[in-house]
Amino acid sequence: MKSSTLSVGEVAERFGLATHVLRHWESVGLLKPSRSGDRRRYADADLSRIAVILRSKEAGISLDGIREMFQKPGERDAVLERHKEELTRRIAAAQASLTLIDCALGCEHDDFTQCAHFQAVIAQAGRVRPARS
């Protein structure tokens, strides 16, 4: 009967990772695969955890922050709220940058920073302080 677990190589291939990444995540406490002799074996729960790690890293959460989510179940909501607030702030900043890029793409000036519409968007964004009188 075939085991329902996967080897480190199979998991690495499934997620497009190097095996040393999975070993590193284990060494820092993010993963705890079972063992069959000296071989790591990954179950469905491990695969879900790897997916969470990857998505969290894509969102800019550090490995320490991810570990904190996993290791402090009693504080999970507070940890997640903190990460949510940070992501919300970063999304707003990225959206503001995207607005500026879209505006610059619409400018016909050689130097888009001299475009009146671009300057108005910058002023509206509060990035330029008014001159002192």
Written description of the protein model:
The chain is mainly alpha-helical and 133 residues long. It has two domains: 1-71, Multidrug-efflux Transporter Regulator, Chain: A, Domain 2, CATH 1.10.1660.10; 77-133, no CATH class. The chain has helices at 8-15, 19-27, 44-58, 63-71, 76-106, 116-124, and strands at residues 34-36, 39-41. It has a two-stranded antiparallel sheet with strand order 1-2. Helix 1 (8-15) packs across helix 2, helix 4 runs antiparallel to helix 5 and helix 5 packs antiparallel against helix 6 (116-124). It starts with 7 loop residues before the first helix and ends in a 9-residue tail after the last helix. The relative contact order is 0.08. The mean pLDDT is 88.
Could you write a compact summary of the structure shown?
By secondary structure, this protein is mainly alpha-helical. The chain is built from six helices and two strands.
CATH second-level architecture of the largest domain = Orthogonal Bundle
Question: Which secondary-structure class do the elements indicate?
Answer: mainly alpha
Radius of gyration: 23 Å
CATH topology of the largest domain: Multidrug-efflux Transporter Regulator, Chain: A, Domain 2
The percentage of residues in β strands lies in under 5%
List how many beta strands DSSP finds.
Answer: 2
With helices defined by DSSP (H or I, 4 residues minimum), what is the helix count?
6
CATH class of the largest domain: Mainly Alpha
Major sheet size, sense and barrel closure? 2 strands, antiparallel
Average pLDDT, rounded to a whole number, is 88
Lateral strand order in the biggest sheet: 1-2
Shape: elongated
pLDDT < 50 stretches: none
